[in-house]
Amino acid sequence: MRKIILIAGHSRSGSTLLDRLLGEMTGFVTVGELRCLWIRGLLADQLCGCGAPFRSCGHWRDIVADLPAAETRDAYARRVLRVQKVVEKSKAIPLLLDPSLRPREFSDRLDEYKHALRSLVAGIFDKTGASVIVDSSKKPAYALIMKELFGDDVHVVHLVRDSRAVAFSRLRTKLRPEIHWMKKNMAVGNPLRTGVEWRLANSVLTAMRDAGRCTQLRYEDLVDRPRATIASLVAGVLAVNPATVQVPHIYGGTAELSMAHSVAGNPMRFATGKIPITLDDEWEKNLTGLRRSVVTLMTRKQLKRYNFI
Length: 309
Ligand SMILES: [Zn+2]
Prior knowledge:
Layout (H helix, E strand, L loop, with lengths): L2 E6 L6 H9 L4 E5 L4 H7 L14 H7 L8 H15 L5 H5 L6 H25 L3 E7 L1 H11 L3 E7 L2 H9 L19 H20 L3 E5 H6 L1 H13 L11 E2 L2 E4 L15 E4 L6 H4 L2 H17 L4
Helix pairs in contact: 2-4, 3-6, 4-6, 8-9, 9-13
The structure holds zinc ion.
The site of zinc ion has 7 residues, from helix 3.
């Protein structure tokens, strides 16, 4: 059995936490945000989750050695990146939802991208021996492509977090440790922009859910009941009874995490050992005034649908 769990949603929704909790399951391997491998891993040589620069990490060196590159590894990564930028942009979403709308040139690029992804995923399964890959790439367009490519073998989890919490998180600066040659922070965004992006990402994924193509999970429920949530999710993917799923690494609001060779993600991807699982609800006190009203008004319909208000 070979399965992929793909965590999709807006950024700052807790995808790295979910990724790490799933990655500890027996027979599972987490890769972090796999769609970032071409730029952040192969080209920019940012840090792998193990702490080594990507190109020096033996785990990934073995996997990327088998990529079907006719040219140098850098040239191949640049070629895949060019195609990725076209097929994963927001404007491509209607084409991804309806193949009959695709111009020939778009289809050719999509085929090229799918070919690269198929080789990469096969290499991960072959070299790690894992039966389940956990990929927290998040981007809805990527989720649509992976679903088209792998069908029922990819289980998309739409992870949704209260838009106000996401907006507040995006106002905070956070250092990106994987950029090891200089100090660089994660991108910050104003609440208006976050509201627009949150609405778009969650609309596409809710449409996928309504079409029976993904399951939905609230970050807040994951944090509230991590052990039961992971057991239930894994049981759904493996088609087994949740009572038979062993989750020894989560107990009493704490997770015990080992090192993971993740390509990209939130800085908590580097954390190992005992990690408390706590709800980050600082926004409730500190996101106030116009900034709070704007996000609430823009996303009200979906906040209701996900039972946040
Ligand atoms: Zn590594």
